[in-house]
Design brief:
three-stranded parallel beta sheet, two-stranded antiparallel sheet, Rossmann fold, 189 residues, 5 strands, 8 helices, alpha/beta
Length: 189
């Protein structure tokens, strides 16, 4: 139980639907990434130490949201809310960030910004990012490695450059063997 808790403390999540508390301000949401490091009684009272505050401020600065620290989260754009989610993950000081469709509910510009931010975090901060994406073009531009699953089985595990249309067909093939005709292939032969 304690071992599992320690593993969880080193693995942060960035969610598709942000999972933020809308009525709280940005800083309070980011501080929730520090809960593992706080005694239970202080987390109930929402009391955080100076180190926690400094780490939260660093995380907000890292995602370029320092000026929004005291705004309610529900007043931010979707892209800003996702950056709060990334800051919360960074405040946890993880070794790995699991990003579950981190751009699914964002417009194309915000999607690019979030993917660029995640790539920077991976390269500059040395944090491994494991992202679940359905936008093949984003995976090809931002991933160092792509793993394609079909019905729970790994059907591709290689660099983005190795993706070809046939591979995408295998990844997106239905149980009956058909592939959606409207599937827009992001790779050219």
């Amino acid at each position: 139980s304690k071992n599992l808790r320690q593993i969880r403390s080193r693995t942060a999540m960035v969610f598709q639907q942000f999972n933020l508390v809308g009525r709280l301000n940005v800083m309070s949401n980011v501080l929730t990434g520090r809960l593992y490091y706080s005694p239970w009684w202080s987390s109930i009272l929402y009391l955080f130490g100076k180190r926690d505050w400094k780490i939260a401020q660093w995380a907000l600065n890292r995602v370029s949201l320092t000026e929004k620290a005291w705004e309610r989260v529900d007043r931010l754009s979707g892209g800003q809310q996702q950056r709060v989610g990334v800051a919360r993950a960074l405040a946890q000081r993880p070794e790995v960030i699991l990003a579950d469709e981190p751009v699914a509910s964002l417009d194309p510009v915000a999607s690019e910004e979030i993917m660029e931010l995640l790539r920077e975090i991976c390269r500059q901060d040395g944090i491994t990012i494991v992202a679940n994406l359905h936008q093949v073009s984003l995976a090809m531009r931002y991933a160092d490695r792509v793993i394609g699953l079909n019905q729970g089985h790994v059907v591709f595990d290689d660099s983005p450059q190795a993706l070809v249309n046939d591979t995408l067909g295998t990844i997106y093939q239905r149980e009956d063997g058909s592939v959606d005709d409207s599937l827009e292939m992001a790779v050219t032969d």
